[in-house]
Every structure is written in structure tokens, then in C-alpha cells.
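Follow-up to my post from last week.
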Amino acid sequence: MRFLQTVAVMLVFGWLAACSSTGDKQTGDVAVVEDRTGETGVDTSAGGATTSALGGYSDLTIESLTDPNSPMSQRVIYFEFDSSDVAEQDREFVVAHAAILAANPDLKVSIEGHGDERGSREYNIGLGEKRAQSVRQIMEIHGVLPAQMTTVSYGEEKPAVEGHDESAWSMNRRVELVYVAY
Amino acid sequence: MKTLWMTVLGVCLYLPAWLQAALTIEITQGIEGAVPIAVVPFDTANSRQAPRENVAEIIASDLARSGRFAPVPEQNLIAYPAETSQVRFQDWRTLGVENLVIGKVETAADNQYRVQFRLFDVLRGRQITGYSMPATSEQLRYVAHRISDIIYEALTGEPGAFATHIAYVISESKNGKKEYQLQLADSDGYNPRTLLTSRQPLMSPSWSPDGRKLAYVSFEKKGRAAIFVQAIHTGKREEIASFTGINGAPSWSPDGRSMALTLSRDGNPEIYSLRLSDKKLKRLTNGAAIDTEPVWAPDGKSIVFTSDRGGSPQLYRMPAQGGRAQRLTFEGNYNASADFSPDGKNLTLVHGNGGRYQIAVLDLDSRLLRVLTDGRLDESPSFAPNGSMIIYATETGYRGVLAAVSSDGRFRQQFSLREGNVREPVWSPFVDRK
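User reply:
Got it. Predicted complex:
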């Protein structure tokens, strides 16, 4: 568990470094997706968004969750401002996690929604909850049992990145998957 | 529901050194048009022990903070009368002040003072009001604030709100770990007291109408949100909501019997009212949107809340028992976090436009929206109980600080703490005045 968290944290920071080095806010999101696979040492061509569902996520074993070389060790889904829609390119990623959960009914996940610091704190709690529920719905459709999932929203109270511009905000509008009872 | 009575484990009996320095106040904008007034240092010749508070200085500072008065700096005073017989009105007319305050602090018994003050109309050369009030050493600041209230009311016709409190949340990082505190201070930022300390987020403090309790959201239980009600004086608290999902945005009804709150127990963030006597829940909104941040109108008949049902967060108003909601805000792409003025005629809110979030006031009759601040990320506005000022959270150097703006936007000031991020200020109601 602790190892998992550590890996997740390391990856987030690696991701962040990659993101901030792009410098271009407009293309930041695209760069994040590309750099993520780069950071984890996976061939970027295998992660192409044009392949069929799960195409980029072939190794859907429970072990892959702890393998830092697997994209499945990633835990975070990012969102647009004031939106709780899971982006098309992240849907596969959520479905891949759902496949692992569905195959391992003892596995449980806490789906934790967050927002950036702008606007009101309680509205951001609502937004974080909607984001977590969007992810939960995709997982439920793909066979994850309700008892395997809990959602919680921290709004803007637990930012991943302490920053005050779009590069930080884009990292804070997120849902984190935290596996429990492993 | 499980009801838990417990003493607060997190209450700190000491204050860290950095907190002992009170909030200090910088006036950042607009003292033009303030009425000149002279507050003469109170005579303490008959105090056996020198009083530990400078009563006149507290009064002068209160009056200055209101934005309505400009106290004469002490070095410019031309005389130090303590009795009516010592006042030469002509001198004060020459100085250009309209009003004069004099007073005395005398020992009445052990650790017991008698504070006397008189307020004069300088032009007419007569006393407007005057009182004598007992105070222990510890009560001197409070009594000074009460005198400020009396002076303010005598001169403006509106009650003063100096002898009131503010509650707020502070977060800071200690050795890489976040620590959150719920604090209470006098309305001038002095006497900060910590009501609760937690490693997990604390949010959304809300005063009971009698000013004796605070409701708030705490994530202390395994990182899950729950709403607590805490008695300020005893520190005793009760958990009133810990449903699955969101337990947020508590807001007391004006009669103190119910609380409006946001829950997602039925799947979506919705507003409910909770009857405090038997914990009976009633759902007030129903839809796929985020509905949150309920606040009761002062007459208790309606509730204003934030909803994104129209595509962006905007304010809506519905009957207090639920039902059809009417949209109130149309300007800008973000209007949230409402608080009613005490007379129920205005709302203060967070107004987002062009990526900036500022404090605004909405006139509920004319529907005119007036932006009062010019920050980048201003939030959590809360009216003073007399409606004269709005306290809110802003930032300087990316650090959260508190600020206040007069409800006409004319006058602004900032409260600064040496460390920590301060946010979510809520101004208390008027408390019992014996």
C-alpha cells in the first residue's frame, strides 16, 4: 500500500516536471499524455488513442498496478475547468482499471475527486464529487461492483501541486484512484 | 443517526508563538469622507494598577476601521480633558473635529475597573451620550468595543458591530505536514483562540443565530467529511451529519432549529434541511446538477444556493421547504458562495468574470450587481451583523489573508497574520448584551 502510494507520488511529480517543462499552457494537456508514457518507459506508439479500447493497456493484471513500468501504475485522471466529463483519451485508462477491479472482486478502490483553487470551496467539493462519480459510473458499467468503490471529494482542500497558475490548476483538477485492502 | 458528545481532543490549550501576535490591520483604501473625531486617552490616575489595555486606542482603532470616522492622531490632540468641566469646545472646533470622546478608567475593587466615557457634539457644545461600565482586566478590550458600538450608533444611527467575533480556518505546513485550525478572534483580529486542530481539512464554519455555536465540516474521520456542531465556550461538540459522500455547506436557519446542508447520499450533491431536534432530513433540491452552499434569508422563508443547472455556477432562490427555484444572477460565468445582508435586501457573493474572482453585492430588488473588490481569487464573503462591512478571504503573495470591505465598496482593509493561510472568515451575529 505504502509502496503503491510512493510510486503514485513519484509518477505525479515526474509528470509534473514534464508538464512544467513544456511551458505552453495551450498544449499542456497533450504534452502530459505523451510525457506520461515517456516517464513510465512505455513505447508511446502503443498508447495511441486511435487503437481499439484497452489497446494501450494490454497488461491488465493486478501486478501491473504495482509495476512502475506499467501505465496501470498511474492513478490520476485530469479534468477541464468546471467540468466533470472524463476525457475520451482517459476513458480507456479508467476502463482498464475497471477490468482489473472486475477481475479481482476483493480489490477495493477509493475514488477521490479534487478541484483547483478557483471559485468557492463548497462548489469545488460538489465538483470533485461529480468528477469522482463520473469515474465511478464508467467503472460500474464495466463490471466493477458498487461494494468495491467508494467516492470522496476533497474539493480544493488537497491540491497535488501548490501553484497558482494554469499549469498547477490543471494538475489539481483530478480524480485519484486509491486502491485499498490490497 | 449516531449522536456523539465528546470533548474536543484537538483543542490546543496553548497558542504557538506566531499566533500570539494578533492579526494586525492595514487600511488599504479610502479614508476620504470619514468624519474627524477626537478620542482623548482615558485618564487612569485613579487606577491602582495601570490597566493593561489602552481603551481610547481600541476605540479610535475601531472607529477608523469602520471607514466612517477619522480619529485625530494622538500627537495632534490639543488637550487631555477627563471631565466635562475640563472640555473647552472652542479648542476642538479649531481643530476641526465634530465629535469628542473623553473617559476614565478607575479601580473599583481588586481586578475590577470602572470605565466611564462621554461623547460630545463639539459644534453644539453638549454631551450626546455617556456611560459607566464595570470591567475586569480581561474584559477591558470587550468594554472598549462596546463603547465603540455605542458611539457608532449614536453618530450613525446604525448599531455598531465591534463587540462581535470572526471565525476562520487557518492551514499551514509543519514539517511537511498540513495542519488545519478553526479559530475565533475578536472582530478586530485580537484574541485569536484555536477551537480545533486537525491534520485533515476543516471547512465552512457557520455561526448559530445565538452566536454560541459553530457548525463546520471536518475530514478528521479517515479523511471523510462530517459536519460537527461545537459549543464555543465548553468545546463540547456533536456530530450531526456523516452520510456517505458529501457532508458540506452547513447553514443555520434563523430560528436555530434547522440546518441546511449539502449531501450526496442519494447520488448527487443536493441541498437538504436537517431538523436539529430529531435529526429529521428533508431533501430540498432534486436534479443532475451540483446544488450547494445554501443560505437562509433572514426571515427564514427562502434559501439562496449555488447551482450549475444552467451550465455554470449561479445563484438561485427557492422556498425554505423546497420547490421551484428562481435564478438570481446572470452577469459573469461564475456567481457563488452567497451570504444575506442582515436586512435581507442584498446578497454578497463571489463573482467570477474573465478568470478573476471578486466580491460583489447583488441588490435583490433591482438585481443590480456591484463588484466591490479587485483581487484575483477573492472568496467566502460574510456580512457583519450590522451590514456595514463584508469580511472575505483574499491573497497577498499567494498567501491567504483576510480582508474587509464596506458594503458600499468605498473602504477596504486587510488583516494580516505572520504565517499560515487564513480563509473562510465568518462574522458572528450580535451576541448577548447584558
